[in-house]
Amino acid sequence: MSGDDSSDGASVDGAPVDGAPITGSDAISGDPGSGPETLAVSALNIGTDEWVAQHETRTSTGHGVGARVNALWMSGPAAVRWGLPLLVFVLFPVLVSDGYLLRIGVNLGLFALLALGLNVVIGYAGLLDLGFVAFYGCGAYAYALLSSDKLGVHLPTWLSVPAAVLFTALIGLLVSLPSRRLSGDYLAIVTLFFGQIFTELVLAGDAVSLPGASDPVDITGGANGISGVSGWSVFGFSFNTNRSYYYLVLFFVVVLVLGLGRISRSRMGRAWRAIGEDPLAAASMTIRVNRLKLLAFVVGAGIAGLSGTIFSAVQVGVYASSFDLPMLILLYAAVILGGSGSLPGTLIGAAIMSVLPEVLRQPTYSELLFFVGLVAGVLWILKPKIGALVLAATVAVGFAINIVLLAVGVPYLSAAEWTQGVIGELLGRWLFVPQDRLLWGNVAFVLLIIAVAAFSRMHGRAKMWFLPLLLWLSVFVWMVRLSTEASLTRQLVIGATLVVLMIARPQGIFGKQRVEVL
Amino acid sequence: MEFFGQQLVNGLTLGSVYALIALGYTLIYGVLQLLNFAHGDVYMVGAFIGFFVMIGLGGPAAPMVPVWLMIVAMFLAAMLGSGILGVLIEQFAYRPLRNSPRIAPLISALGVSLFLQNAVLLLFGPRIRDYATTEYIPIGSGFSIGSIRLDPMRILVVVLSVILMFVLVRLVNRTRFGRGMRAVAFDREAAVMMGIDVNRVVVLTFFCASALAGAAGVMVGLVFFNVSNFMGFLAGLKGFTAAVVGGIGSVGGAMVGGLLIGLLEAFATGYLSANRPTRSPSSL
Amino acid sequence: MRRSPLFTGIAAITCLTLSLSGCAGGSTAGSGSSTPTVGSAPDLSSAAGPTSAESTPSDPTSSAGTPSGSNSTSAGDESATSSAPAGSGKACAGSIGFMGPITGSAAAIGGEQLHFAELAVKNFNAQNGSTYDVVQGDTQLDPGQASTVGQQFVSNDAILGVVGPAGSQEVDAIGPVYSQASLSFVSSSATATELTAGKYSSFFRTIPNDSVQGPTDATFIAEKLNAKNVVIVQEKTSYGQGLAASVGDALKAKGVTVNIVQVSKDQPDYSAVVTKVAADTDVVFATFQIAANTQVLATQLKQQGKQAAVFGSDGSFSADFKTPGGYVSSFAPDVKSIPSAAEVVKAYTSAYGDFATTYGPPTYVAAQAILQAAQRACQAGSSDRAAVLAQMKSTSITDSILGGTLTFTASGDVEGAKFYVFKIGTDGVPALVQ
Lengths: 518, 284, 434
Fold this sequence. Notes:
By secondary structure, chain A is mainly α. Helix content of chain A is 69%, strand content 3%. A two-stranded antiparallel ribbon of chain A has the order 1-8. A two-stranded antiparallel ribbon of chain B has the order 1-4.
């Protein structure tokens, strides 16, 4: 699937010539009609190098089951590669009637819409827009005001939604106008301010002194938000179930993916990415940098506004806290995790960042994830034989520690008092669970962090000897302390996952490796 | 005038704290071009270390050692602890990403931030901790200029942050380590070629930056009393803003930016935000 | 991927080996490995012999044992409150959903609420031989997350009732869904007046709403304290907004000059706001959800030499707000001074440490209400949500830890809700003045 953005076959001239580094984004060098531009870019030596970017593909092809499946998948036509997942998503509500799963589906769709919008801003044009969720909020609030009792206005959907989207896009234009000459971190700070101002305005908007009125007017509802927002209703069909919104969101995701896919391959998309790579170089190729930056901003804002209108209808209300920084963090994580600039990557990233937190809500799943991750991780990273030895040693360490702690006389819980589920059954005979879980768990948690730190400083054989102890400690911490605080554990796991995923794949799942040639 | 003066004092106190946080952002950015979004949480951990040192020394009501010694111990422990934490974070979350796209460490920083926030919540519970400064430094023990109150802790915070900034500037400009730091900031590859141990420089930079954040954490506890696991989020954001406003990467800029944001906040509350209009009783 | 050819096979063998030794590795193994596990079980339990032995430790300091021990003593007086005496009837089971800000910026509130709910379930199970459990739903005080968690709870058939959510907007976000599913939900901190105006048929709350607190506090400030100038420090939350409006309106109606100053909820410093408080201000009314913030405000007022008395709303009613001369209102007497709550307070402190917010004990009562309704429904033979909801309406908790008997009005509010006003003495302990 990663072939999406580069599928136009940039590899035509993708080999280094005369040792000169191949430069610029693939889209530019890949366009047969842009010969002179290629020349112009080669003066600038930073960008995605085709040959290096394919390094991973080359080394991994033809090895192992996973790679073979991957190769098979990649060999299929694009229609199949996109069509199969789409089919799954179309059939999902038919197969599932559970309201919660459908709701997760709607959330996933909304998240994907937002991520697609953000991808235009940061993935294509490379603008670090930290006020993106404010546009989401603008759309949501605009729609809510136009279709609730707050102002007593109930516009038909075909009027209110375009109005909300246009309004948001206009706000996007207004924000980007003064900041179009800023770049990088300065743009980030201006947009961050915008995001904060939006929240402040909304929170203070419950008592606005208008010139004509003697009493302050309540517009946004302040911290109470606006409730009782009416749903979408198009061509006589009212959306009022999760299932109907699921299809609505899916429709927009498909439209956007098709549209953005085309745009990304068009002259404009290439220009966007050129700006993202290097605005100066882009400008020197007669790309109108400022205008395109504005356009990226406006398109991103419009998409966010659209998702906002759906969000406020799904939730039957809008509240300022939904458009604050935590949401922004999740969104950025989605886009970057997936591989900034890649459409399938963005979608996968959105799926991970919206489904993973929900999966982790269920303690049984998160426990399963932990143990499977632990065992698989050991077997995967180490050579399998050594990994098995390490796991066996871990078991032994557990029993040894039991004997020591019992000899010391630490009060403990019997297995029946703390075990639950399949894993609990198995662990019940092996793990020592002290009575004071709070104290022991906290001490062990700190020890675990220290142990991991020490482990990372070790080399060679010492590492192997230490690993079983580390594994035992992490199981101990999980069962003794973390499993009693499911919601905290969820946040801890999300945090750790972000770090681990980024380290495992810095360029994102579908991102291309950048190589800077000096 | 007195109103202005008092707000100036308010703003300067807040600004000094922001400046210390901003310095950390700026140092790390300068050397690695990395926005360390976990910095606010390092500051939070510093505040907690200070709190527990205080409890360990007998608590606010009956300290076992002289008050000045207790405060010194709180600062030293928090700076040391935060410094080590910063180095650990660098090693785990940022070093593997040293040569990746600039945006990648941003996400791993957010992951670290989430982890730290909730680890503290797990270890110490959700309760907000109170430094209870007024128990060992009574209210009114400072002095007044007109009706402007100068609380001793506020004076301490401003003076101490000026001292810390001064030490930092000397460190950057006058020492061998500072030279290495500037060299790495200017051009990492060239610095390597000149025989500078980049990793060493980075580790030391993270230590300094995080130690400053730890000091800021204790300061906030001493002046504003409350510490919670979530306090780093907003403070980190303010510090980041200050660093960018002052010109990220510039040590002097961070100080100015921090003070500016603090003063701006105080004066905005003082002058700009009018008292909110209330509805007239008829609306009952 | 490079190691894949060998990987699958060796992983399977490893897991088999591991499950032979009965460890966690079995979780990844195929079903084929289950037989050896059983076979090797005996010598395992002999290896870890004492661990699986059902011996009660002699060490009395262990915390986990203490609450359940003290429960049995409290069972006597509390079992009278539930319609079913301990031991009689069948063992009932089910889940209670908990919604609240367990993590995030309001964790100080939600963490204690969760622990009180868990304690309530534990105590109830110990008394009635039932096996109810708590399902956590972390909302971070965000209505968006609340509505997802709400869907999750509705879809989970085991859940008979929900404790929470914490915020009024969250109630708005999930109210329609819960009402449609006849799922009872009892909030212990959502105070917006209009929530119980018949909007949501399955909504209850264990604390009075803003329309009770606002006028009570305003009357006290205007008539008892004879205040002429009042500054309301409004936290920018749903809680602060509703309360500030309610108190502000009532004060204005009494001819008091009112100024409202808004502060952000995560702000650490209120000194700029304090400087703005004019010297002739008589009372500063603080609408913080967390008492520690009110304490900071009061201390900073003192530091700047302002004479105004601080009046905290019910969010400030905790040991963390201890400035002498301050006032605080509450919907219940101090839980730590109510005899019927002593056991619960003791059990809580030994299991989770001290608590500091106001909203823990009402959560305990909320959980009790649901548990009793579920138990009654179960003993009546039907334990579906509609039956629980029907039983909820006839809730009556005698000697509740909030003092007195708790019953609900038809709209779901607390019957006979009233507010108390306390003055904080020189020792930092509040004493009842009204």
